[in-house]
Specification:
250 residues, alpha/beta, Beta-carbonic Anhydrase, Chain A, 11 helices
Length: 250
């Protein structure tokens, strides 16, 4: 009788151990990090081939922005091997981007691109002077980017300040005043067309983008020639701070 109790006791202990082992395996399977879509798709952009056309370049930007908007970004390789590779092979960006200095507008992030993918020039109000045009020329002529994107954004402080200065009749003085002076013709144009209130700000932002494109084309023989040769396309774009989406202006 005593032997039967001992046997039942041993069997009970073994059963408890078996249950614990099985439960542990189940928990381990549940807590093991699943392979994410990011991990599966990451090599797609990290190993992108040479981009030869403006259409291909724009498509990469459109797809990258969509990933950013949906929170499915892929391009976050900041490893030492990535940096070393860029030093050895040099930079080969597929797009030159002129945009505003606003701290909320970061092209690499909002287009989900990595180190070495985009050549960027930033100025308040995305306006240009000779040194900025020179930087643009370096991107399109020496780095051979097939696309130049001039991108403004919603709620632009430089445009807002210009609108307020125009409506109040304030003088635009000093270095900051020089920025407003560059934007003023765009504000005057949309104001003359009857825009007011929020529409005045929004339309002035769009008009400023178009005006900057026209100025670059007029003042850069390099850009003009590349466009005429079909080697470069200039695109206007507007980044919306609230949604994260980039609107392409035709």
């Amino acid at each position: 009788m005593q032997g039967g109790k001992t046997l039942r006791y041993i069997l009970a202990i073994l059963l408890i151990v078996a249950v614990a082992v099985v439960s542990g395996c189940a928990v381990q399977q549940q807590t093991a990090a699943p392979t994410t879509e990011k991990e599966k798709a990451a090599p797609e952009l990290y190993t992108r081939g040479e981009v030869k056309t403006a259409e291909e370049a724009k498509q990469l930007l459109v797809e990258g922005n969509q990933r950013y908007v949906t929170g499915k970004v892929l391009n976050d390789d900041l490893s030492s091997s990535k940096r070393e590779d860029l030093v050895k092979k040099g930079q080969h960006p597929f797009a030159t981007i002129l945009t505003c200095s606003d701290s909320r507008v970061s092209p690499e992030i909002l287009f989900d691109q990595g180190l070495g993918d985009v050549f960027i020039i930033r100025t308040a109000g995305n306006v240009v002077e000779p040194v900025d045009i020179g930087s643009i020329e370096y991107g399109v002529e020496h780095l051979h980017t097939p696309v130049l994107v001039v991108m403004g954004h919603s709620n632009c402080g430089a445009v807002k300040a210009t609108v307020e200065a125009v409506e109040k009749g304030d003088k635009m003085e000093g270095n900051i005043g020089a920025i407003l002076t560059k934007i003023k013709p765009s504000v005057d144009k949309v104001k003359a067309a009857g825009a007011s209130g929020d529409d005045l700000f929004k339309n002035a932002e769009n008009e400023n983008i178009k005006a900057v494109i026209a100025e670059i084309e007029a003042k850069s023989p390099v850009v003009k020639e590349l466009v005429e040769q079909g080697k470069l396309k200039i695109l206007g774009a507007k980044y919306h701070l609230d949604t994260g989406q980039v609107e392409w202006l035709e």
